């Protein structure tokens, strides 16, 4: 048994020819956030604090679909959501519909720590943020030129699209709108376990490009996009409606608990049982195991373990 950490910056149809200006900043952010998480675990920070810290850093990075880089709704606004969960106590907090909160994951943590509830959304969540003194900015601060362009492309194609969806060429015609696409592609998440087997998971997202106002994805749903218990911690990414239908994160824990599968067996089974191109996840076990499976073209991901193993990747590696 030893500490382990894994994080992701979203899964999806990430082209092998992804331009360096889109690839390199994300890879650098993954390296930086992994180092921050490893340092925190080495300093014996609780995994709950570690995953919040790492996801805050990812939210502050404009090249991921969370926090500062959140994509836009059909009305050109932002609606952010996040979830955090402690494995041993199963305490958790979740938020949706945020428009001014700088770090959604930290507001989710405040919901967990300061209220009798699990989930706050929209006006109630914003009011709670102000009551607790959470950092907020004018919602216009989240609206970047890149995401305005993404929304324009999605509207022109008459579709709801995920972050790594490639623009249609001018002579292409969109098929029926992609109602199954999700925020998750571009979503960020982190899972961690310390040397005592304490586990935690955190996930944050800006949502779908061109999503309907008020749409909620899998990220803040306990057992779908985010879950942790005394056996494992999971943060999922992919098409949110698929992940919600399949209770993907909880299924991993259930397979370990009720069928005795290992972490790698359980995550591989869950990923394979879902439609190809829809699901990715990062997960750690109480034993210090780590795995990062996906059935999409790629997944921005990174992990490290106490025994010295470290990996940062996008597309399938040889061992995958």
TrEMBL record:
Quaternary structure note: Heterotetramer of two alpha and two beta chains arranged as a dimer of alpha/beta heterodimers.
Active-site feature positions: 187
Pfam families in UniProt: Asparaginase_2
Name the UniProt record assigns to this protein: beta-aspartyl-peptidase
Broad class of enzyme this protein falls into: hydrolase
Family annotation (PANTHER family): L-ASPARAGINASE, N(4)-(BETA-N-ACETYLGLUCOSAMINYL)-L-ASPARAGINASE
Binding-site residues, substrate: 215-218, 237-240
Domain of life (superkingdom): Eukaryota
SUPFAM superfamilies: N-terminal nucleophile aminohydrolases (Ntn hydrolases) (SSF56235)
Record site feature (Cleavage), residues: 186-187
Keywords per UniProt: Autocatalytic cleavage, Hydrolase, Protease
InterPro entries linked: Ntn_hydrolases_N (IPR029055), Peptidase_T2 (IPR000246)
Catalyzed reactions: Cleavage of a beta-linked Asp residue from the N-terminus of a polypeptide
EC number assigned by the record: 3.4.19.5
Residue intervals passing through the bilayer: none
GO molecular function, one term: asparaginase activity
Organism classification: Eukaryota, Viridiplantae, Streptophyta, Embryophyta, Tracheophyta
GO biological process: proteolysis
